[in-house]
Amino acid sequence: MPTIMSNVLSTNVTPASLLTLxxxxxxSVAIKRRYFSPLSHIPGPFLASVTRLWQVAxxxxxxxxxxxxxxxxxxxxxxxxxxxxVSVCHRDGPRKILLTALPKDSWYRxxxxxxxxxxxxxxxxxxxxxxxxxxxxxxxxxxxxLLTFEHRIDKLYTxxxxxxxxxxxxxxxxxxxxxxxxxAADITGELLFSKPFGFLEKGYDIDKTLxxxxxxxxxGTTAGYFPWLSKLVANPFVTWTGVLPFRLVxxxxxxxxxxxxxxxxxxxxxxxxxxxxxxxxxxxxxxxxRDVQGQTTLGIVAGTDAMSTGLQTFVYHTMRHPTAxxxxxxxxxxxxxxxxxxxxxxxxxxxxxxxxxxQACIKEALRLFGPLGTGLPRVVPxxxxxxxxxxxxxxxxxxxxxxxxxxxxxxxGPDAETFNPDRWLKKDSAELDRFYxxxxxxxxxxxGINLAKIQxxxxxxxxxxxxxxxxxxxKQEWTYEAYFNTLPHDWPVYVKKVHQ
Length: 500
Ligand code: HEM
Description:
Keywords: Heme, Iron, Membrane, Metal-binding, Monooxygenase, Oxidoreductase, Transmembrane, Transmembrane helix. It comes from Podospora didyma. By secondary structure, the chain is of the alpha+beta class. It has one domain (about 25-495): CATH 1.10.630.10. The chain is built from 23 helices and ten strands. Strands 1-2-6-3 form a four-stranded mixed sheet. It has a two-stranded antiparallel sheet with strand order 4-5. Helix 10 runs antiparallel to helix 17 (about 290-320). It is globular and about 85 Å long. It starts with a helix and ends with a strand. Protoporphyrin IX containing FE (HEM) binds near residues 298, 299 and 302.
């Protein structure tokens, strides 16, 4: 009987022998990964221990946050989620993984936007290089800079409230999820380069840009695991054809940058936006034009779905707890009395900051359901590390899922899965901040955090002061897809103006 090897080496290779050889190779690799890896003792789904495809399939199905949370409830703080990756939900995890500047996993390379020529702070995996690059763009995201742009946010919020008033007057169900996405996208265009995309003006998803983009980000999230797939879906040719659903936003952004860059003096200097600052960094030779283009498209992609979900999670959770809604409203009234004046129609960030209970509701809503749909993977350096009593060899990917961390009863107590804003008003609430991470943590945390807080505070205070909101079907839970970002939908509401 000929051996498999001799069969292959002979000229008479049959399809059957070739198939057998492939099978033997696959099974050998699977056995090695499952039983002879330094991570073999860590529990988790069998398939995950032998192939990355388990994680890819989980991501594509759109609820990896739920799946990973259940796995941690079943197996505890360490779950093997790929042959070389362990998901960590341990109290030392944030400090050891996110606050220690570990390199990001190569999965992040898919964060080059719109294609691999445009490396961004998201796609750069080396902490030192990423921090140096981010420094050049940081001024655009500082609270002091953003507050000089507050009137731009007010302008778009006013447009949104005109729609809300219309739905209220017509007594028709409103898909606030979609309108929040329009608002979030338009605000990124307005703040970055003074050109909203026109979603709020039209009142619909132009060319289905936003809905299709969320789906394509789903593919992009998995493409990070396969460099060839990344290059197939995001390359100079694809960018040139403009076939990707982001077309509208990319083209608007690129045109705005090109037009402003071509001018000797930026005429926006009298009414600056974020691009004004980034073009100055370009003029000073601190960044390249490609860096500015990449960072601008990243700002749109990262700031749209995440911000929409941020606004949604506040309204959805507070609305389903009418006493919380009323307490926020009472807080606004008390502040107005204390100040002896009415707050502006679009409440200012400064005023909204003076409402501790409202801020607690925002924080609690982001804890229960934040915009991040994946884990944050980092690579253990040479020499290895330990988390709790678990040792990890160098080269292992360790990831933290903020969703699991922020719902774990070991950190948050028995009501971990309940909306309870009061937990943030207790004396020892600072302790909880160790496990609170909707914006990520450390050198790679969200640079848009200040902008997010400004937008959420203003929207929350203005909306709940002036409107009653109830779900068309109060028993219906929202649905969502969690890819890189979570994006909820299907929770239509009736809005009613409190003061006509
Ligand atoms: C409630 C709203 C938001 C939340 C919860 C949020 C959360 C996050 C998270 C968790 C990350 C990933 C961090 C990591 O990989 O370690 C991220 C990245 C990022 N976010 Fe946000 N985000 C929000 C809104 C925004 C907004 C409004 C902008 C700006 C327009 C923005 C810009 C970015 C950028 C540019 C990145 C890439 C980070 C990098 O440079 O490495 N985000 N965000």
